[in-house]
Every structure is written in structure tokens, then in C-alpha cells.
Prior knowledge:
Blueprint: H1 2-21, E1 28-32, H2 38-45, E2 51-54, H3 57-66, E3 71-74, H4 83-89, E4 92-96, H5 99-108, E5 116-122, H6 135-146, E6 151-158, H7 166-186, E7 194-196, H8 203-208, E8 213-216, H9 218-221
Amino acid sequence: MNTLIDNYQTVKQRLQQAQQTYHKPEVQLLAVSKTKPIEAVNVIAAQGQQCFGENYVQEALEKIALRPDLEWHFIGPIQSNKTKPIAENFAWVHSVDRLKIAQRLNDQRPVELGKLHILLEVNISQEASKAGFSPEEVCSVLPEIMAMKNLECRGLMAIPEIATDFEQQRQPFAKMRELLARCQAAFPEAKLDTLSMGMSGDLEAAIAEGATLVRIGTDIFGARNYHKN
């Protein structure tokens, strides 16, 4: 338990230091609890953390049932047959990578829950193995997504190609910042205020380039365990 708390406090300190160094407003921390037991979530929640990210639907539903008071974000790949439980149980979805998924989430979101906050996943490094909209597609699909009455598109998400050099890490994050700025200029009526980017190994570079939310798993909870979907 003490290790978890120490890890969490260390990550919080890194966030605060990066915000000060790069003169950025407060960055939201999403604690990525995929493959980790609810007991670990409870330890971090007791430290004041409210937002948790999950990749696997069935595992996430079990945790949500135990801690419905927390804010749950779905951040993993989305199969079409999993959109209904995602739409019914999560507050945020970071990994909307195609229009079909956005439409299914919209159609399956219970009206009484209010709008589902979504982010468009961008394949910013244009890797063949990664899902997501191309940077060129994003502004063109936004009008259709903004018309979906049960969704609120809040911005963009990316998982860039891994780089160890700090300046190399910054480059795709800078492209994401510029892409969001273009979308904001094109659609001033939209609430496009979120850039979900940066993980344990590159959160400083992401914050330097304007991340508003970082997704941290390993540096809080340790290496991932075997998962069940």
C-alpha cells in the first residue's frame, strides 16, 4: 500500500513540476488501473484521485459496480459489440477511432445519463499498426460527430510512436496541439478543450506541448498484470 501511495505522490510531483517548468495550467491526471485489482484503485482513490482509466470492458464493469462514485474513462480499443456497455457505464471515452463507433455510442447512450464525453483518437505518427483518424480526417468528421445528440466531443487523444529522446517525444505532441487549435478555430461553437496525451515515459514532453490530461498507469500501479476482457 505504501508503495502505491509513494508512486502516486511521485507522479503528482512530476505533473506539478512540469506545469511550473513549462508555465502550463493544471493538467488532469487519469490513473490507468487496467489489470489492477479494485483494492489498488481504492488505495489511490483514498488519496483524492477521482478519475480512472480502463482498457477492458468486462474487468472495468466489475470495478465500476464496486466504485460507481468514481469517474471512469474508457481508453482501450473499441469493438463494435462492446459499445453498448461502454455507452451505458462510462463518463468518458478516449478511443473513438472511427465514425461507426461514435454512432453506436450515440445510439446506445441512455439519455438519462447525459451526454457521453468523447475524444477522437488520432494516429498522429501514422503507424500502420495503430488505429485512429488520420490528422487530415479529424476536422472533416467533426461536423457529423457534433450532430450526434448524445455525445459531446471534447477534443483529441493520441498514443504517438515511442521515442526516448525528449525533443523527439515533443514533436508528435506539438502536432496534436496544432491540430486541436485548427479544430477549435474551425468549430468555435464546440467545447474542444481536451488533449489526452502523455503516459509514464513521456508525460513531461506532453505537458510541454499542451496536454490537458495525461494517462498514467505503470508509474502508479506498476507493470500490468494478465487481463481478462
